[in-house]
Specification:
heterodimer, A: alpha+beta, Alpha-D-Glucose-1,6-Bisphosphate, Chain A, domain 4, eight-stranded antiparallel beta sheet, 4 helices, B: mainly alpha, Arc Repressor Mutant, subunit A, two-stranded antiparallel sheet, elongated
Amino acid sequence: MSKLTLKTEGDTHLVVTRRFAAPPEAVYRAHTDPKLVQKWLLGPEGWTMPVCINEARPGGKIRYEWSHPKQGSFHITGEYVELEPHSRIVHVERMHLPDPTPENHVETRFDPDGSGTLMTMRMTLPDAQTRAAMLATGMERGMEASYVRLESMIFDWPQSQAS
Amino acid sequence: MSTKVDLDASFAALADPTRRAMLARLALGEATVNELAKPFEMTQPAISQHLKVLEEAGLVVRRVEGTKRPRRLAQAGIEAMDQWLAMLRKALEKNYERLDEVLAAMQSDPIQPKERKTR
């Protein structure tokens, strides 16, 4: 099982790859069945997804709402563009923070890889600035917990003063 | 001692999403203040203030070119962005570790039809 890769491509793309020990049929289903999506698409510890609308058909709606006891809540909305069971999903999404971010166009492929699946998720943003802003702000909510952990790891000495 | 101070400053600088966005933009190459300000609904002084924090943290350096002062990432800024991307990768990996568990449960769930052996 190889680890996740995350890399930028050109000025406007962001590509994520990950291998899974399950066939493409199963990985595809885990991306399109709201009951399953709700179990894993949660980001760091403490976040839940109380609302998960996922209408897996062309033109179908996507709405994910995340909530955290201390860090509040936010949501994304989107629409499905194309679905090829069980190999490819194309959708658009935007985050509401609360103003909607520019649209992120996402193509997710599920290719057989031995007895498992290689997933390739290719995000396309309208321009370089938007991609930079997304990397820095849009994904920030999901990042907060890891960030706080790393910070406390690095500042592992007595504080000289409280401010 | 100086390492501690640098870490302190660079973390304070990274704690703000606007400043992280500026670093991510500068990772693409040199940019003017106007170009950096473009994606944000912020006044020029607010943008300049963020840039000042980044410069004082040693993450961003400026160059003089006529009346322009284009900024670029300093080595520390490149390292800071690498670190940020590593954290982002970690948060994504958390999702997919949970998905691994969901997939394992799907395969052993007797209610679900078994995957066909022939195809």
